[in-house]
Amino acid sequence: MSSNAAEKAEVRGEVQTVVDGAAVAWYPQNFPGFFYDIDDGLGNEKIEMTITGNKLEEPNGVKYMTRTQETDFEFIDWGSYYAIGFLGEKYFAGYADVDDAFTSIARSRDLLVNGRLTRILIDDAEERILKFDEPMDLEDGYSLRATVGDDGQGILVELLQNGANVDRVSLMASDTYVYAADMGKAVGIPIIAAHFRSRYFWITAPSARSTESSSYPVLQWKWKWTLNTTR
Q: How far apart are CA 173 and CA 198, in angstroms?
């Protein structure tokens, strides 16, 4: 099969009877080409077709419409953001009612007003154990690494991209890390967040090189959020 053939797809909408003067509408519920999340009730793209003389009215016989919808993060304590279905895909449009961890660092909260949308790469609530000094991979070449804070109480969080350090912040052990970046005209919009949910502790495990056990500090974290900065 050629690459061109692989890219083609046929999507059929609900069958409609062509009636002179009729207005026909397709929604996510009756047109599979639109984005629709039945669990969260997201997706309100719409195509309206106006029939005149047994054909589409000229020049505005077909209208495409969509609008943002507010929805919660997987981590409810972070608040909510605006999502939008556009040409069959879900996009991030801006932050709504969000936690202080976001607002304290954000210089912009709205992408759509700046003529931009982006994909959500991670909105994850899976609990993980992060070993100190061991990077946790995210997306777009980013990773997070945590070490014990200078005071021996908190943690030092480092954000890496392709192995290079781009940010370093001291946090309490139960806190949210947020990193903001510029996206076109949207200046200083949060693109990465991670919530560390408890104080660090030690794990004892057998050594791979001997029969003795070794102990190392680890940290629990559960919630992650990452946006695509390239589109």
A: 6
